[in-house]
Automatic annotation (TrEMBL):
Entry function: Involved in targeting and insertion of nascent membrane proteins into the cytoplasmic membrane. Binds to the hydrophobic signal sequence of the ribosome-nascent chain (RNC) as it emerges from the ribosomes. The SRP-RNC complex is then targeted to the cytoplasmic membrane where it interacts with the SRP receptor FtsY.
Family affiliation: Belongs to the GTP-binding SRP family. SRP54 subfamily.
Gene that this polypeptide is encoded by: ffh
Protein known as: Signal recognition particle protein
Positions spanned in the full protein: 1 to 297 of 484
Organism this protein belongs to: Lentilactobacillus curieae
Domain (AAA+ ATPase) ranges: 100-278
């Protein structure tokens, strides 16, 4: 399971408090030191860890936890609540347009899982809302990307709009949206191009697409397995595009958890979905409280 190292270390840190009727400040300091190391080892952003530790420590001291009934339980509760807060507190739903179609623009680095996630999201909307989405193939730099999206569309029974690789992506996006309006689609999901790393040309083009179609939702697709690089990438995209939500992919293979725990705090943008596998059905709404409980084991 994902994050097993972190879970084990957090449990060990807190185990030492168990059964103690009273916790000394030194006990608390030692526990917090171990929690801090566990989070850093999980590749959580340094500043995020520092703030987290300080908040938990202040709350534990301030609320007379150290003297109260079952202090270790109370500290676990505080850690649980603060982890939840760190990841955004509440699940945040997709932004919807007042009038159909809702325009969703996917963005992210190549390989992060954009195309796959576009398909997964279309299937989710189709299954759960009975919606009729349209997928738009707007990655013209990787010819295989169009084929990939068409294959995905066929697999989930969702139409794909494409104009090949010779048309400007801004134009494709615009015509894709026009097609969705014409066909009364509820959603139009635009799969944009990625690069191996952030570059000016790519960001310029994404900004142009955004300005042209004015999406209701700009989802940034981030590979959680890349840890702090994922967080830096998220900051870069967010600075350029002012994204409205994050999708963390490949959580099924993420043994550390640093990206999941840092992205919200660093970018101040909500994680809306998580990808937990390669199948089209492997996309889930992100619930910070459930994730915190899962991390604490
Ligand atoms: P893109 O370049 O951003 O469009 O990335 P793709 O959608 O082509 O995905 C790259 C690879 O990551 C593919 O092999 C996907 O099957 C895989 N992938 C995407 N999301 C997930 C996920 O949540 N879990 C796992 N295990 N693999 C994923």
């Amino acid at each position: 399971m994902a994050f097993e190292g972190l879970t084990e270390r957090l449990q060990n840190a807190m185990k030492k408090l168990r059964g103690k009727g009273k916790i000394s400040e030194a006990d608390l300091r030692e526990t917090m030191r171990e929690i801090r190391l566990a989070l850093l080892e999980a590749d959580v952003n340094f500043t995020v860890v520092r703030n987290f530790v300080k908040t938990v420590q202040d709350r534990a001291k301030g609320s007379e936890v150290l003297e109260g009934l079952n202090p270790s339980q109370q500290i676990i509760k505080i850690v649980d609540e603060e982890l939840t807060k760190m990841m955004g507190d509440e699940a945040v739903p997709l932004n919807k347009a007042p009038k159909i179609p809702t325009i969703i623009m996917m963005s992210g680095l190549q390989g992060a899982g954009k195309t796959t996630t576009a398909g997964k999201l279309a299937l989710k909307l189709k299954d759960e809302e009975n919606a009729r989405p349209l997928l738009v193939a707007d990655d013209v730099y990787r010819p295989a990307a169009i084929d990939q999206l068409e294959t995905v569309g066929e697999q989930i029974g969702v139409p794909v709009f494409q104009l090949g690789t010779d048309v400007d992506p801004v134009e494709i996006a615009k015509r894709g949206v026009a097609k969705a309006i014409e066909d009364h689609n509820d959603y139009v999901i635009i799969d944009t191009a990625g690069r191996l790393q952030i570059d000016e040309a790519l960001m310029g083009q994404l900004k142009n697409i955004k300005a042209e179609v004015q999406p209701n939702e700009i989802l940034l697709v981030i590979d959680s397995m890349t840890g702090q690089n994922a967080v830096n990438t998220a900051e870069g995209f967010n600075d350029a595009l002012d994204v409205t939500g994050v999708v963390l992919t490949k959580l099924d293979g993420d043994t550390r958890g640093g990206a999941a725990l840092s992205i919200r705090a660093v970018t101040d943008k909500p994680i809306k979905f998580v990808g937990q596998g390669e199948k089209m059905s492997d996309l889930d709404v992100f619930y910070p409280d459930r994730m915190a409980s899962r991390i604490l084991g």
